[in-house]
Specification:
The chain is α/β, with parallel strands linked by helices. Helix content is 50%, strand content 18%. Helix 5 packs across helix 7 and helix 8 runs antiparallel to helix 9. The longest helix is centred in the middle third of the chain and has 17 residues. About 7% of the residues have low confidence.
Length: 211
C-alpha cells in the first residue's frame, strides 16, 4: 500500500519541491537551496530486515547515482520510510528498538520512520491542501490535550504529529501570519498549564521520535 507515499508527494509539491519517482517506487524530492528527500514504502518485514533488505539496497544504489550529480546531496539528504500498519501503538511497542536503531544509525543519511494505518490518513489524503489539514488537526485544543495524555489514542493526530516533526519544512500555523514550531507550542502550553507530568511525557516523546 502506497497511500502515505502519495500523500507525501502532495506535501512536497505544496512546498514547491520537484518530485521524481523512479521505477523502483522511490520518490526523490528536491528544491533549490533546500534538503533532499528520498521517500519509500516499507513493509513490517522490510523494516525488521532494513539493513539487509533488497529495498534498502536499491535506495542506496539510487543514492550513489544521485551523489555523482549533486555534490551537496550526502549531507543534505533524509530518507522517509512509510510503514502501513494495522495498529500504530501495537507496532510501535513491538518494534520500538528496531525503529530506534534505524533512525539513530549514522551512516549514509538521516532516516525517519512514519507509521500510519489506513484509517489514520482517511480524512487527510483527499484534501486539496494537505498542509492546511495537518495544521487544522494539530491546532485542535481537545485533540492536543488528548494526545498529551496518550500518544496513540488518536491515530490521525499521531500521523499529523509525525509529519510535522519529521519534515522540517512544515511549520505549524498558530494564528494567521504567525508561525511557530510544534515543539515551542507544545512546551509553552504545557508549562503555562503547569502540567509537569505531561511536560515530561512530551520530552520523552521528543527524544524518541525526533532522532
Amino acid at each position: 500500500m502506497k497511500k502515505l507515499l502519495e500523500l507525501l508527494k502532495k506535501i512536497y509539491k505544496e512546498h514547491n519541491y520537484t518530485v521524481e519517482e523512479s521505477e523502483k517506487n522511490i520518490l526523490f524530492s528536491k528544491k533549490s537551496g533546500q534538503d533532499y528527500y528520498l521517500t519509500a514504502s516499507y513493509s513490517k518485514e522490510e523494516i525488521i530486515s532494513f539493513f539487509e533488505c533488497d529495498k534498502t539496497d536499491k535506495i542506496l544504489s539510487e543514492f550513489k547515482e544521485l551523489k555523482e550529480e549533486k555534490e551537496d546531496i550526502k549531507k543534505n539528504t533524509s530518507l522517509i520510510l512509510c510503514v502501513n500498519v494495522d495498529n500504530i501503538k501495537a507496532f510501535n511497542e513491538e518494534l520500538r528498538n528496531t525503529i530506534f536503531n534505524i533512525e539513530e544509525d549514522e551512516y549514509f543519511f538521516r532516516k525517519y520512520i512514519i507509521l500510519y494505518s489506513k484509517d489514520s490518513i482517511k480524512s487527510i489524503e483527499n484534501e486539496n491542501n494537505v498542509t492546511n489539514k495537518i495544521n487544522k488537526i494539530l491546532t485542535d485544543d481537545k485533540r492536543m490535550g488528548d494526545f498529551q495524555e496518550n500518544y496513540f489514542s488518536d491515530e490521525e493526530f499521531f500521523v499529523a504529529m509525525q509529519l510535522i516533526v519529521k519534515l522540517p519544512f512544515l511549520a505549524l500555523r498558530i494564528n494567521q501570519g504567525d508561525f511557530d514550531t510544534l515543539n515551542s507550542r507544545l512546551t509553552s502550553n504545557i508549562i503555562e498549564s503547569k502540567l509537569d507530568h505531561t511536560h515530561q511525557s512530551f520530552k520523552k516523546f521528543n527524544e524518541h521520535y525526533i532522532s
